[in-house]
Amino acid sequence: MWASLLLVAYWWATGGGLTGVSAGGLSAVAEVGRLAGLLASVLLLVQVLTTARVPVLERCFGQNRLVVLHRRAGVVSFSLMVLHVVLACWARAPGGLVAAPQMLWHLTWTEPGMVAATVGTVLLVLVVATSVGPIRARLRYERWHLLHLYAYLGVGLALPHQLWTGREFTSSTARTVFWWGLWAVVLVAVVVWRIGLPVARTLRHRITVAAVLPEGDGSVSVHMTGRRLDVLGARAGQFLIWRFRAGRGWTRGHPYSLSAAPDGRSLRITVKELGDGSAGVPNLRQGTRVLIEGPYGRLTGRARSSPRVALIGAGVGMTPIRALAEQFLAESADVAVVHRFSREPLFAREFTRLARERGLRLVVSPGPRRGTGSWFGRGAGRVDDVTALRARIPDIAVREVYICGPVGWTTMVRRTVVAAGVPDRRVHVENFG
């Protein structure tokens, strides 16, 4: 990303950009607008690439970090795109800045590719607007995700006019090859890993629902079977994007973590009703076909470097914790689980059985949180979180720690375990939300 940004900035500078800026006036306005457009183009493609499920990026960074980069690149690219439009119209408008809207209208209907670019920009505005915190919080995940898919169409319509008419894209063979190559790489990534691989895995494994069983805290577990699940590559702690061929809205994908360690013959997820799609999960029937994307996620045993492990989860975040506990116990690890819940514990009987039969150390933290600055329940007493954690797991500092839960909660837990002496490199976090 940084190499591409530096390269296009260098080409801009040596292609008249610095000369135009030094000349001042509308020439400077035009050149700054041109640079903003170039940088916005790179970052728009970075946005698409970070959510293309490219395996090497998934393994190196994980979805949490890729989503953060996607969001930051989106904010900057959108701002630069708006700046590009405003400055480009200002520089060409005979009446100055006040005439820029009229010039925008004129360019839309006279410049090649500008009608498509305008439609694409409007779609990107829609995506950005629905991603703003207060608006995003009011939308269910499934509806927001459906709107967010328009970003692909927006990028596809907004950028091609530069490839056809922009001098930065056509002034040399090297620049033409670079830009078309960048587009090709991103397009291939989307086609192969967002479309091709999920379709191939779905057809190969033919996963169907075997049973839907109730769990605690208003959740249900979906047990699934399929062909050759041993070569799917799913690990305990990972999640997949699931589409159940049942009823309306089946085309929308839902990210659910595995709640049992994969055994090569079956898969299990545990779902709580939190959105449009999850409301229909309890009504799934035996034999329902399942479409999959994944597996994804870095909250796996691949990162473990210690024979002692602490798994800390809250609410539905206990689903990957449950799968990891099963796997690590099978590998003869010393496992401690901290189970945080407000009303009813999830997998209570399973964790009790693992404690009785496999030596799992189970620590429960029930009830409402004892304060805004604490992640423990009220039963932890008046001591600080670090002291409370050390009292329950005295050897926490020598353990590998896995954390899963809501964003704010996991931030507090991570801060606590690091303060308790766990090196940051041995703390692995996955957020849900």
Automatic annotation (TrEMBL):
Annotated localization: Membrane
Gene3D superfamilies: Nucleotide-binding domain of ferredoxin-NADP reductase (FNR) module (3.40.50.80), Translation factors (2.40.30.10)
Cofactor field: FAD
Membrane topology: Multi-pass membrane protein
Pfam families for this protein: Ferric_reduct, NAD_binding_1
Domain of life, source organism: Bacteria
Protein name: Ferric reductase
